[in-house]
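Help needed: design a sequence for this.
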């Protein structure tokens, strides 16, 4: 049934159910809920009224969502600050809030996480030649959004520590 055909009270109740079902699965941004309600056919007035109520009740908080997102995605997926900001923007979080939340991951934490990722990946690369391993490690870090200078430094140092010659990256000047 099209939500527009429902009486206003019933329409608001149905929209609230949609939002609560989504929020029960995981925290959401206002924009994610707005898009879900739009896809389900709810009019703008119903969407904005409900989102305002959820915001005032503290059930939707983009800043809190961004902090949680940064913490979990950096820890579990190993994403860089840049990648985290981009993800948050795609989820409808304001750019300023996204940058502030990603700022909680400092340069040292970002470098340490990059090193962990390289060490973990190197365990499955024992049969590869150094050039192939280097290329794959650099690609993995780049896909996770790490700056190229940090990628080169971390890969070179971790390969050397593992006993590889790592001469391939000696001429590369990190940014």
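Sure. Designed sequence:
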């Amino acid at each position: 049934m099209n939500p527009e055909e429902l009486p206003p009270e019933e329409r608001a109740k149905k929209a609230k159910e949609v939002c609560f079902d989504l929020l029960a699965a995981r925290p959401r941004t206002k924009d994610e809920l707005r898009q879900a309600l739009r896809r389900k056919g709810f009019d703008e007035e119903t969407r904005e009224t409900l989102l305002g109520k959820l915001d005032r009740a503290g059930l939707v908080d983009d800043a809190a969502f961004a902090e949680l997102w940064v913490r979990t995605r950096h820890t579990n997926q190993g994403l860089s600050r840049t990648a985290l900001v981009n993800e948050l923007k795609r989820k409808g979080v304001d750019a300023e809030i996204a940058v502030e939340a990603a700022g909680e991951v400092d340069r040292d934490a970002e470098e340490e996480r990059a090193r962990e990722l390289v060490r973990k990946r190197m365990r499955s690369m024992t049969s590869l030649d150094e050039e192939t391993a280097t290329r794959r490690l650099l690609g993995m870090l780049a896909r996770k959004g790490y700056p190229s200078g940090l990628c080169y430094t971390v890969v070179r140092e971790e390969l050397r520590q593992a006993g590889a010659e790592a001469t391939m990256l000696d001429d590369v000047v990190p940014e």
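The mean pLDDT is 90.
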